[in-house]
Amino acid sequence: MARNHIIHTSPTGLVTIAGGKWTTYRSMALETVATKQSRQYISACGLEPVHKESQTDGLVLEGGHTWTPTMFIRLVQDFGLESEVAKHLAHTYGDRAFSVAKLASMTGKKVTVGRRLHSEFPYIDAEVRYACREYAGNAVDIIARRLRLAFLNAQACEEALPTIVEIMGEELKWSEEEKKLQYQNAIKFLQTEMGQNVNRVSRETIPIHLTKNEIADYVNRFNSLDTDKKGYISLNDLRRSLKNEGERVSLDQLHSILNDVDVHKCGQVQFPDFIQMMAAIKSGSISHSRFAQLAERAEEDLHSKKISVERSGGGV
């Protein structure tokens, strides 16, 4: 998608800024009011500039006034939050993270406060309460625009949804009927907008034309990630494999890798789905998969660590 923008002045003096993106809004505004070209806009509108220089350059965003890279440590010390949760709050809310943490409930565990909405994500109950007090009015707003959990993992979002709706009900004084309606609307959003009901024909209808040797190879690749023989590959399996390779990736990146093949959006990859993906790659229907590459490397690492019979000092 094009990210450039244009500035146009109509004969009637209407100044229009079109294009661009959210993260370039400052440069767009600066070009409109603080460049040589801006003089024609000012002149066209009959305006007299009060300042010659931009007055918002260096303006600190809300939450950034006392933020520091190590601020999360204070959150851990002052509130007893998990380190991962504290880092998430500091990164998301800046110095307002302390206001969020004050709304956190007790966990009943070693960690004092910060009840997670889902075990695999650092989002906590306090964020829902804080969002409601920042004018969030429905469950879809919470899961899609405040937490954005719907975009990371639709299945995990659905699992967290009852808790989210319950907390919102307390904050916004919802009746049981309203809570039920909010839950249903959010489920519909996940199914229709976040892909839970997307037709998987594009992948599932691809015939599996693999040789016995190829299937055996893919079994080994699958098992090299599923080291504890659960029968599926989870987020923790990916994290462990990447850690063994010396790679550090964020939680969002892990979910992105898993979503390559997690067609059921359940946070797990079953072997049939893995085989279907490999068949799609072989046929050319899928050109690239980070998940498939990771499985291949894990298998290679496993073979490289094996010790020959001669070196082991014994035989069969």
From TrEMBL:
Pathway given in the UniProt record: Polyol metabolism; glycerol degradation
Superkingdom assignment: Eukaryota
Entry's Gene Ontology BP terms: glycerol-3-phosphate metabolic process
EC number: 1.1.5.3
Domain EF-hand: 213-248, 249-284
This protein's record includes keyword Metal-binding: yes
Keywords attached to this entry: Calcium, FAD, Flavoprotein, Metal-binding, Mitochondrion, Oxidoreductase, Repeat, Transit peptide
InterPro entries attached to this UniProt entry: DAO_C (IPR031656), DAO_C_sf (IPR038299), EF-hand-dom_pair (IPR011992), EF_hand_dom (IPR002048), FAD/NAD-bd_sf (IPR036188), G3P_DH_FAD-dep (IPR000447)
Pfam families in the record: DAO_C (PF16901), EF-hand_7 (PF13499)
Top EC group: oxidoreductase
Single Gene Ontology MF annotation: calcium ion binding
Protein name: glycerol-3-phosphate dehydrogenase
Source species of the chain: Meganyctiphanes norvegica (Northern krill)
